[in-house]
Each structure stands twice: as structure tokens, then as C-alpha cells.
Amino acid sequence: ESGEARRKKMATGQVRASHILIKHEGSRRKASWKDPDGRVISATTRDAAVRQLLALHDDIDSGKACFQDVAVRCSDCSSAKRGGDLGQFIFPPPSFPF
């Protein structure tokens, strides 16, 4: 999707978000769909998780890999089965009076 198409969508107030989550020993919940017992996650340092994410970012940014494919293969979030897609959100979020 082009930058112009994204800007038009943001102007309408809706954005779509995707992410790749790599859990580590400091994660609140040390289990995921691909590591149900949390053994790999518990042995992964925060620095190692950051290095992995940076390497994945480089592969995606250089065109060596597709974001959705990387999310399916590497993300610890259940959104991995949707290519990391978190769905649509209203942007900016409405403010609610107290």
C-alpha cells in the first residue's frame, strides 16, 4: 500500500496495525502459541529478542522477506496466524469525558 493510500485512510480516522512480538525472559507471560511451556522464551534475554527483531526488520526493509510471512513464522503473538494483523483502529482515539 502506498504512502498516499495510508494518509487517506488516516484522514478518514481508521488505521490498520500489525506487529511482530518476540517474547523474552522479562515478558509477563512466558508462553506463546509456538512455545506453550515457555522454555525458549525463558531462555531468551531482552537483548537477544531486540537483536532478533532488528535482524527481522532489516530483512523486511531490504525486501528479503515479507512482513506477513515473518510474523507468521516468528511472532509469539496469536496475531501471527493473521500475519501479525491487529485489525483496524480509530485514529486518533476519541477522548472520553470523565
Architecture overview:
This protein has 98 residues and is α+β, with helices and mostly antiparallel strands. It has a single domain, classed as Roll (Chitinase A, domain 3), CATH 3.10.50. The chain is 39% helix and 11% strand. The protein has helices at 3-11, 39-42, 46-62, 67-74, and strands spanning 14-18, 85-90. The mean pLDDT is 90. GO terms for molecular function: peptidyl-prolyl cis-trans isomerase activity.
Q: In CATH terms, what is the architecture?
A: Roll
CATH class: Alpha Beta
Radius of gyration: 16 Å
Q: Can you tell me the number of structural domains?
A: 1
Q: In what order do the strands lie side by side in the largest sheet?
A: 1-2
Strand content: 5-15%
GO molecular function, one term: peptidyl-prolyl cis-trans isomerase activity
Pfam families: Rotamase (PF00639)
Catalytic activity: [protein]-peptidylproline (omega=180) = [protein]-peptidylproline (omega=0)
Keywords: Isomerase, Rotamase
Short description:
The chain is an alpha+beta fold and 98 residues long. Helices cover 39% and strands 11% of the residues. The chain has one domain: Chitinase A, domain 3 (Roll), CATH 3.10.50.
Keywords:
two-stranded antiparallel sheet, 2 strands, PPIase_dom_sf, EC 5.2.1.8, Peptidyl-prolyl cis-trans isomerase, PPIase_PpiC, rotamase, Chitinase A, domain 3, alpha+beta
Write the layout of secondary structure elements.
Layout: H1 3-11, E1 14-18, H2 39-42, H3 46-62, H4 67-74, E2 85-90
Antiparallel strand pairs: 1-2
Catalytic activity: [protein]-peptidylproline (omega=180) = [protein]-peptidylproline (omega=0)
InterPro entries: PPIase_dom_sf, PPIase_Pin1, PPIase_PpiC
Pfam families: Rotamase (PF00639)
